[in-house]
Every structure is written in C-alpha cells, then in structure tokens.
C-alpha cells in the first residue's frame, strides 16, 4: 500500500513540475497552460511568433545571455528544487533559441500543442547512497562514480579487505563526520499524451502528431532524490 501511495505522490509531483516548467517557458509568449487537479492532467497551447523578435544587427547571443529574461528557467527556485540541473539547462537552451534574433527572411509562426494525462504510476525501486550527495560531488567532481569504482575493485581483486580500504578512503575524502546520504526512488509514470508542433503559415506539421490523432500511451521513468542527515538526537532528518 505504501508503494502505491509513493507512486501516486510522485505522479502529482511530476505534473506540478511540468506545469511550472511550461508556464515559465511559454507564459511570457501568451502560452496557455491548463492543469486539472482532479485528473492531474496538463494541457499546453502556445504560439511562438518568430516574426516579432528583435532582428537588429547589434543584438548578439552574448547580449541575450546577459539579460535576465534568458535565464528565466535557471532563476526559478521552484524548478531548481524539482528538476535536475542538466535537464533544466536543455530547456533553458530551448527558451534562449526562441528569443535569440533570426537575421533571415524565413521567420515563422509555430504553434505547440501538448497534453499529458497520467493514468498509472508504479514504484520501480528505492535505495540509499551513503555519504555522497549532488552538492558534495559538485564540489569534488573526482568523487563522481565513487561506488562504481568500488564495484570494479571487488570484481578485479575479489578482496573484501581491499574494498573496505577503498571505502574508508572515500569516507575520509567526503568527511568522516558526515552522516549524509541520498535516498533515490524511481517510478514509471504512464501517460496519455498528444504532441504537435505546426507551422501556422503553411499548416505543415513540423513535429509530432497529425490533427485528429488519438492520444498515445507514453511511459516516463522519473527519478526523485532526497538528502537526509542525522540530527543531534541521532535520528534521520
């Protein structure tokens, strides 16, 4: 029963994160995001008007990068707490590309239609990674893959003493007083989805499904992480 509760909560979190992402990306462009709390369904309809972008010759990618508007995803604290940094960078790149000037005569108006309706969620696995957190690895990049290296040591030596020694070395590198760990849970979220990108001038489908197509079943593997530590009373927080 607790597994079903976990999976259900993960499905809600997935929908809320996607809602915030779409509103952040397309809200300034007149995009309409509708979220149905009862069904946890999400619908996005947006028009990207490439004809109205700044096309001055002295506007460069670097100048746009300095503008706060091009960091709209990176500056959203809620999204940064909910979604992986590398994934957010990809969406930030999408947003920047839309707002960068296009000095050509082939500018277009594109419509985006996306609907997502979760119909099933299932917990796949849950496990803990002792000592290491994303912040620790970010500050000490050489620690990335530390546990994979321990696994390779055992495969190569078949020696528990050797693995024990390497584990002590890893603990010393992280900090022997640290009791932090990363709890990771992975769930599959099955959704009914419709996705389409259309050139409004020609009516051509640039990407995705045709008008009138039925929603397709899509399975997302979603990972959730939480860092825990020991409080003064020795209990996990």
Describe this structure as you would to a colleague:
35% of the residues lie in helices and 30% in strands. It is of the alpha+beta class and 237 residues long. Strands 1, 2, 3, 4, 5 and 6 form a 6-stranded antiparallel β-sheet that branches. Strand 4 (181-199) and strand 5 (205-208) form a beta hairpin.
Q: Secondary-structure map with pairings?
A:
Layout: H1 2-26, E1 32-36, E2 41-49, H2 61-65, H3 77-82, H4 85-99, E3 109-130, H5 134-139, H6 146-157, H7 160-174, E4 181-199, E5 205-208, E6 216-228
Antiparallel strand pairs: 1-2, 2-3, 3-4, 4-5, 4-6
Helix pairs in contact: 6-7
Separation of the first and last Cα atoms: 23 Å
Mind summarizing the main beta sheet? 6 strands, antiparallel
**Total count of strands:** 6
In one word, what is the shape? elongated
- Which segments are poorly predicted (pLDDT under 50) over 5 or more consecutive residues? 54-70, 99-105
The ordered string of helix (H) and strand (E) elements is HEEHHHEHHHEEE
What class do helices, strands and sheet pairing give?
A: alpha+beta
Mean pLDDT level: 81
The radius of gyration computed from the alpha-carbon positions, rounded to a whole number of angstroms, is 23 Å
Number of helices: 7
Beta-strand content bin: 25-35%
Helix content, binned percent: 25-40%
């Amino acid at each position: 029963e607790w597994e079903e509760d976990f999976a259900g909560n993960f499905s809600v979190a997935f929908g809320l994160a996607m809602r915030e992402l779409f509103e952040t990306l397309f809200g300034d462009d007149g995009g309409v995001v509708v979220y149905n709390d009862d069904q946890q369904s999400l619908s996005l309809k947006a028009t990207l008007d490439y004809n109205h972008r700044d096309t001055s010759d002295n506007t460069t990618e670097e100048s746009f990068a300095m503008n706060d508007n091009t960091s709209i995803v990176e500056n959203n604290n809620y999204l940064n707490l909910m979604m992986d940094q590398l994934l957010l960078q990809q969406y930030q790149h999408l947003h920047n590309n839309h707002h960068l000037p296009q000095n050509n005569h082939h500018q277009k108006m594109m419509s985006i239609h996306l609907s997502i309706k979760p119909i099933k969620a299932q917990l796949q696995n849950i496990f803990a990674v002792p000592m290491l957190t994303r912040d620790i690895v970010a500050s000490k990049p050489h620690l990335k893959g530390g546990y994979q290296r321990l696994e390779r040591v055992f495969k190569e030596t078949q020696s528990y003493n050797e693995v024990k020694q390497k584990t002590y070395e890893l603990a010393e590198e992280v900090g022997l007083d640290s009791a932090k760990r990363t709890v990771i849970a992975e769930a599959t979220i099955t959704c009914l989805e419709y996705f389409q990108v259309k050139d409004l001038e020609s009516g051509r489908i640039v990407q995705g499904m045709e008008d009138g197509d039925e929603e397709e079943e899509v399975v997302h593997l979603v990972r959730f992480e939480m860092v825990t530590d020991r409080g003064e009373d020795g209990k996990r927080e």
